[in-house]
């Protein structure tokens, strides 16, 4: 959500809308924290979610969304180096990597 909003140039509007619906914590702070954890632990989380895919398939339940989670966590975990500080820096890194990958 945050990455798409940033790419579309509507991050402030999306955050304001989300903040209006849930006021316990700012969504910008939540996005920053969640991206921090994904960048730091994405590789391990992807491996764990691969096991979830296997379990769901064994149970005969579709795993389409779970496969998407595996892909995104793996991509985030593969980014090397120090985790950027702040939401702007994290989103900037991710968008630049997305653009590099698309080129």
What would you say this structure looks like, in words?
The protein is mainly alpha-helical. The chain has one domain (29-102). Helix content is 79%, strand content 0%. It contains 5 helices and no strands. The chain has helices at 2-8, 11-21, 27-58, 64-78, 87-102. Helix 1 packs across helix 2 (11-21) and helix 3 (27-58) packs across helix 4. The two termini are 22 Å apart. The mean pLDDT is 90.
Number of strands: 0
SS element count, helices: 5
Shape field: globular
Mean pLDDT equals 90
Total discrete domains: 1
From the helix content, strand content and strand pairing, which structural class follows? Answer: mainly alpha
Rg of Cα set: 15 Å
Q: What string gives the helices and strands in order?
A: HHHHH
Low-confidence stretches: none
Distance between the termini: 22 Å
Largest beta-sheet details: none
Helical fraction equals: over 70%
| Portion in beta strands | under 5%
Write the layout of secondary structure elements.
Layout: H1 2-8, H2 11-21, H3 27-58, H4 64-78, H5 87-102
Helix pairs in contact: 1-2, 3-4
Short key terms for the protein model shown above:
103 residues; mainly alpha
Concise synopsis of the structure shown:
The chain is mainly alpha-helical and 103 residues long. 79% of the residues lie in helices and 0% in strands.
